[in-house]
Design goal:
Elements lengths: L1 H15 L8 H15 L5 H21 L9 E6 L4 E3 L2 E10 L3 E8 L10 E10 L4 H6 L2 E7 L6 E4 L3 H16 L6 H9 L7 H10 L9 H19 L3 H6 L2 H19 L4 H18 L6 H15 L7 H17 L8 H15 L1 H8 L1 E3 L2 H27 L3 H26 L5 E3 L5 H14 L11 H10 L10 E5 L8 E4 L4 E4 L5 H10 L7 E4 L4 H4 L2 H7 L5 E3 L9 E2 L5 E4 L2 E7 L14 E5 L4 E4 L5 H10 L8 E3 L11 H7 L3 E4 L12 H9 L3 E4 H4 L2 E5 L5 E5 L13
Parallel strand pairs: 4-6, 12-13, 13-14, 14-15, 19-20, 20-21, 21-22
Antiparallel strand pairs: 1-3, 1-5, 2-3, 3-4, 5-6, 5-7, 8-9, 10-11, 10-23, 11-12, 16-17, 17-18, 18-19, 23-24
Helix pairs in contact: 1-3, 1-12, 2-3, 5-6, 6-16, 7-17, 8-10, 8-11, 8-16, 10-11, 11-12, 12-13, 13-14, 14-16, 15-18, 16-17, 18-19, 20-22
Length: 732
């Protein structure tokens, strides 16, 4: 079973390597090939057949999901399939379309006419567009579009549907009524029904820094805890009543109770991937108990893997899939096939050690960071959550359906207990050595690191066990290639409708604007191993340029801040024309604004020119035609540039022909959001740049745009969306 399951997984992964989605007709050909392979006399034929079936099944599922939402009418009919989340005056939710095609869309509704309930069926007038960010997540969840409800076109309520989601929302609303809001109260809801929307990024960072993010939502560990408690409790009670023992043995009664608990708690969590895996594995082990059969752990693992992939083969696009199954595989591998010594270390400590070491490569691959305190933090947090907070949360779920007063006391107790644990985790997360940031640049590095982990966790006495450490050295010692003296690495980040540029020389780093969400910029800096900034430039005060600055300033040391709005920042300086400096043989100079052109909004944006010996880069913020005229009149000789980030995202309020001709860029770049409401860049601006022969790119379609400016005047261009996968090119 494990070999077949891994072969099936290989077939699923093979499809993910395609940049296009093959037609469903491929399946017919693959089935014919499978039949020929079956007729061969070969001991490995079932391995090849499993690979082909994995590819075929994932292809069928992907083609079903890849629906062209442009065929949807302006009014769609379906039902709400997630708990609606209200932020300010807007409610967001997932909507499953029933007619004319079956698909899922993510919608927002400003000022809905009534309270939206999960499971309610509606006929909604909508405006849709393609999912542009998190395409892999959207595709594996079957979500093909996002948009908003046009309220003035009179949405129509049809009926109620889906009792389970209504129950989950009812529990959430009741908890919010009886439990006073606190820092940890949203996590209590997460532990009760698996709903984590609205939790701030700062709290997720605490969990990432301590390696405990797997604890704060319903997952396999939680189901395992409650199933075990149910088993032990029912067996103990059953043995106290001899008449019950005559009906069914105590261990079988405990197994049934444990199985019911697993499915009930998974239902509360909406059957996420970790809960699917946990339910399947628990079901396999408990069924073996009921039928008095012994199933080896690897057989149960293989069956769980195969069934989860059959339910949704595209779950391989989710990090939770890999973390969930890898954790179980590590436990089986690291704890099995050994003579078990007695003592607390073997029963508890070794499991934590195996997981902490074993998840090292995946943590760096998915999150570009690894918690150095995860072993200690998890040793404290797992029993705290599993034996205290989790039972209280589950009891609260039961009580809240019958008696909200009693539920309030159990919820308060759970919240108080979690707040104490949270203070401990926060202390750990703030330690200077709490986490280590590193990037894995290529899958081959990941494979090498996994081999090293397998060797390190092999049984004592395994030949060459210590050599596993050397397999980890490529990851441990990898450093991104830095530019040479006189060279520049330039990156225009895809931050939606906003602007952020990262400039790196041999020993220095500068960020020009931060977009709206600073976490996106921070992730990029950490992936490049940039741990501090020599300079932060905020061109002006608009949120799409300055909104993420607070996150950057909180997480990274910044030596100096230049901006046209220093009142927004502590100890910032004006970016006045004439300010210049040199880093590693690269010249930097502010060309604008002057003291007389401050306090003019967009037209006071900092204009920064970066010059190597033979190449020039011009960053212009949101300047408009008035500022462009000023630059043409005052410093025309300094405007020439090879790379230009278009003023004001390519708005028609900017882009004077005279300015464009003076700059005469080889490349012009637009920092734009996908299908943005401003329709940037404007067609007239694009046409003007086209007439001078400039090569044009938009972040909305190209992703991150990166240039390596070399000494020999060459420009090496790379686009993050150039090597796309089939889920990046949904129609629309």
């Amino acid at each position: 079973m494990p070999a077949l399951a891994l072969s099936f997984l290989s077939g699923v992964l093979l499809l993910q390597c395609f940049s296009f989605l093959p037609a469903q007709q491929w399946v017919v050909g693959l089935v014919i090939v499978s039949v020929f392979i079956y007729l061969l006399e070969n001991r490995f034929k079932f391995i090849f057949i499993a690979i082909l079936f994995g590819f075929s099944w994932s292809l069928l599922v992907a083609n079903k999901i890849k629906c062209d939402f442009s065929i949807l009418p302006p009014t769609i009919q379906g039902h709400i399939i997630s708990i609606p989340q209200k932020i300010n005056d807007q409610v967001s939710f997932l909507f499953e379309v029933d007619k004319p095609v079956s698909t899922k869309v993510r919608l927002s509704w400003r000022h809905p006419s009534c309270s939206l309930i999960a499971g309610d069926q509606w006929e909604l007038p909508v405006k849709l567009k393609k999912i542009h960010y998190a395409e892999a997540w959207a595709f594996q969840n079957g979500i093909t579009a996002q948009g908003y409800v046009i309220a003035q076109n009179h949405p129509v309520f049809i009926s109620h549907k889906n009792v389970i989601n209504r129950l989950r929302q009812y529990i959430q609303l009741e908890v919010e009524k009886v439990l006073p809001h606190s820092q940890t109260s949203p996590w209590i809801i997460a532990l009760m029904i698996g709903e984590r929307a609205g939790i701030p990024q700062s709290e997720w960072e605490v969990l990432r820094n301590t390696g405990t993010n797997h604890l704060m939502a319903i997952a396999g560990l939680h189901i395992g805890f409650l199933s075990s408690i149910s088993y032990v409790s029912v067996v103990a009670i059953w043995r106290l009543v001899p008449r019950l023992m005559l009906i069914i043995p105590a261990y079988q009664a405990g197994a049934c109770a444990s199985l019911i608990m697993a499915f009930f708690y998974s239902t509360l969590a909406g059957f996420s991937i970790p809960t699917q895996r946990a339910c399947i594995m628990i079901s396999v082990f408990l069924m073996s108990t009921l039928y008095r059969r012994i199933i080896p752990p690897w057989q149960a693992f293989g069956l769980a893997l195969l069934l989860v992939l059959m339910i949704n083969p595209l779950s391989v696009l989710s990090s939770s899939f890999w973390l969930s199954f890898t954790t179980i595989a590590l436990i089986i591998y690291g704890m099995g096939g050994r003579i078990k010594p007695h003592g607390l270390w073997w029963k508890w400590g070794r499991v934590q050690w195996v997981i902490a070491i074993g998840l090292f490569p995946l943590s760096l691959w998915f999150f570009t960071q690894y918690s150095l305190v995860s072993f200690i933090a998890n040793s404290i947090a797992i029993p705290w959550v599993g034996f205290l907070i989790l039972p209280l949360c589950f009891i609260s779920v039961i009580l809240i359906l019958f008696n909200s007063i009693l539920a309030k006391w159990t919820l308060l107790l759970a919240d108080k207990s979690l707040s104490i644990l949270w203070s401990i985790l926060t202390w750990f997360s703030h330690l200077p050595f709490a986490s280590w940031h590193q990037t894995i640049p290529h899958p081959i590095f990941l494979i090498i690191a996994v081999i090293g982990i397998v060797i390190l966790l092999s049984p004592a006495g395994f030949p060459g066990k210590c050599s596993g450490f050397f397999w980890l050295l490529p990851v441990l010692l990898f450093k991104p290639i830095l530019p040479l003296k006189g060279e520049v690495n330039f990156s225009l980040l895809d931050v939606g409708q906003g602007l952020s540029v990262v400039i790196q020389t041999k020993h220095h780093a500068l960020v020009y604007d931060t977009g709206v969400i600073g976490e996106r910029v921070l992730d990029y800096l950490q992936s490049r191993n940039i741990q501090k900034l020599d300079m932060l430039v905020i061109s002006h005060g608009d949120k799409d340029h300055s909104g993420g600055a607070a996150v950057i300033l909180e997480k990274l040391p910044v030596k100096i801040i230049f901006t046209s709005v220093p009142a927004l920042f502590y100890s910032a300086q004006y970016c006045l024309a004439g300010e210049k400096w040199e880093w590693d043989g690269v010249q930097f100079e502010f060309l604008y604004p002057t003291p007389s052109t401050l306090n003019q909004g967009n037209n006071s944006s900092c204009v920064l020119k970066i010059s190597t010996e033979k190449q020039h880069i011009l960053l212009t913020g949101d300047i408009e035609k008035e500022a462009e005229k000023f630059l043409i009149a005052s410093t025309p000789e300094k405007l020439s540039a090879d790379i230009l980030v278009a003023p004001h995202h390519g708005s028609k309020t900017s882009g004077l022909r005279e300015f464009i001709e003076d700059v005469h860029p080889q490349y012009v770049l637009y920092a734009t959001g996908y299908q943005n409401r401003y329709h940037f860049p404007h067609a007239s601006v694009v046409e003007t740049y086209r007439t001078i022969g400039a090569i044009q790119y938009e972040t909305a379609t190209a992703g991150d745009i990166q240039f390596k400016v070399n000494k020999d005047a060459s420009l090496l261009l790379s686009l993050s969306r150039a090597n796309h996968h089939f889920w990046n090119v949904l129609p629309g």
